[in-house]
Design a protein that fits this description.
By secondary structure, the protein is mainly alpha-helical. Helices cover 74% and strands 0% of the residues. The chain contains 21 helices and no strands. This is Cytosine permease.
Length: 452
């Protein structure tokens, strides 16, 4: 390791030694701030995704109620296993995703998985911010007669940017406090949906034949696909969890924190879209809840839930990507990510029929994320045998410099396989990408230095 590189690595590690507010770093994280309870609540509060609502809407007419429920549950348990597996490196060594990926993709090559992960995060950030702003606007129009969606979108986005700058200390506080409110609101929203539309739903959703074949497994991938982004960069979060939790318990924490919110939101989207034909949650609950105070509370919940989900899921990943590529501070990167969300044109994603478009979006980006997930898992468990050389991961002039062609070729193979079976793209990509990466790393000379 060169003197300059050694000094940089030492400086980064020193910066990580004390966890000041918003002082996030790419260095190994020594000060862990989340115990098991906080970690569970962080994932719980961060998984109230309007995207899940849209995925529920997208399987209407394909699955019956039992099939939709099982598809969501299976997707959540696959997510739990995948998060525990890929988050092991971050949990053990305290490193973020962008550093974890260096051993497989190379220092320069990590830009590929980083950017592939960042794009859907920014799109979801803008989409969910627009939904949250719509909820605030409806509250304002109802109570005060002030109706200006653009104003609330801009205000709401800058509020989230401010919260994001606080880093994981702020995320921990926000998610832990908000979880009880989120659970209570979801239960009420589910109850209101059944009360309002129960008669219309019972006959059609329970008696329709549906499918247990490819559409069913495609649906499990849709609900899984919402979190395929987080399965890639889970080390960004696991590095904050205090040591001492076995992998089996971590799997349970992930699965059981994600399941309630995903199940409620997916089924609510499924049921109300079947009954009303609309996938816009704001309009759905405006029609479902007759009591004005309860409607205002519900709408405020929708807005709050977008904040908790965005700050955890959609801000941190692209922020670390910007930090790694452009060598900028966490606070500056979060502001840039927040501004980029304005450019996603989220109002286009809430048009009638948008659920089908979002379904295609999830299937497509999952085709790119699945291969990268497989490569990271094979690299850590098979090539490295769960042992990483931290010094090499921070040495830009060492064996991991440049681009590892094995990872790029394996990613391409996985993408082709995934797009050939687009309905189950994430599943279809895993074996082709993982096997290709293993064979190239073992037998192709140009990749041997990355095996060190």
């Amino acid at each position: 390791m060169s003197a300059s590189t050694s000094a940089l690595a030492s400086e980064e590690r020193s910066a990580a030694g004390s966890k000041a507010l918003g002082a996030e770093s790419l260095a190994p994280q020594h000060t862990r701030i989340m115990g098991r309870g906080s970690y569970f609540l962080a994932w719980f509060g961060g998984c109230v995704s309007i995207g899940t609502f849209a995925m529920g809407s997208s399987v209407v007419g394909t699955l019956n109620l039992l099939q939709a429920t099982l598809a969501i549950a299976i997707g959540c348990f696959v997510i739990g296993i995948a998060l525990a597996i890929n988050g092991a490196a971050g949990y053990k060594y305290g490193i973020p995703f962008m550093v974890q990926a260096r051993s497989a993709f190379g220092f320069t090559g990590t830009r590929l998985p980083g950017l592939v992960r960042a794009v859907p995060a920014v799109v979801w950030y803008g989409f969910q911010s627009w939904i949250g702003a719509g909820a605030l606007n409806m509250v304002s129009a109802t109570l005060f007669g002030f109706d200006n969606l653009i104003f609330y979108f801009i205000t709401f986005q800058f509020l989230q940017i401010g919260l994001s700058v606080m880093g994981f200390q702020g995320i921990k506080w926000l998610e832990n406090i908000g979880s009880a409110f989120i659970l209570a609101s979801l239960v009420y929203m589910f109850y209101a949906t059944v009360q309002r539309y129960g008669d219309e739903l019972s006959a059609s959703l329970l008696t329709m034949e549906g499918s247990w074949g490819m559409p069913f497994w495609g649906a499990t991938m849709l609900f899984l696909g919402i979190y395929s982004t987080m399965m890639l960069n889970v080390s960004d979060y696991s590095r904050e969890h205090k040591k001492g939790t076995a992998q089996s318990l971590l799997t349970t924490i992930y699965a059981m924190s994600i399941l309630p919110c995903t199940l409620f939101m997916g089924l609510i989207g499924y049921m109300v879209s079947q009954a009303t034909g609309t996938a816009d949650p704001i309009q759905v609950f405006a029609n479902a809840v007759d009591n004005t105070p309860l409607l205002m509370t519900t709408l405020l919940f929708i807005a709050f839930a977008q904040v908790t989900t965005n700050v955890l899921n959609n801000v941190v990943p692209p922020t670390y990507v910007l930090m790694d590529i452009f060598k900028i501070k966490f606070s500056v990167a979060t502001v840039i990510v927040g501004l980029l969300a304005f450019a996603t044109f989220p109002w286009k994603l809430v048009q009638p029929g948008s659920a089908a478009g979002l379904q295609l979006f999830v299937q497509t980006y999952s085709a790119f994320l699945g291969p990268i997930f497989a490569i990271l898992v094979v690299d850590y468990y098979v090539i490295r045998r769960r042992t990483l050389d931290i010094n090499k991961l921070y040495d830009a002039t060492g064996p991991y410099q440049g681009v590892n062609l094995a990872a790029f070729i394996a990613t391409a193979v996985g993408i082709v396989a995934a797009l050939s079976f687009s309905a189950i793209s994430w599943y279809a990509s895993l074996i082709p990408a993982g096997v290709t990466y293993y064979l190239l790393m073992k037998y192709w000379a140009p990749c041997q230095r990355f095996s060190q």
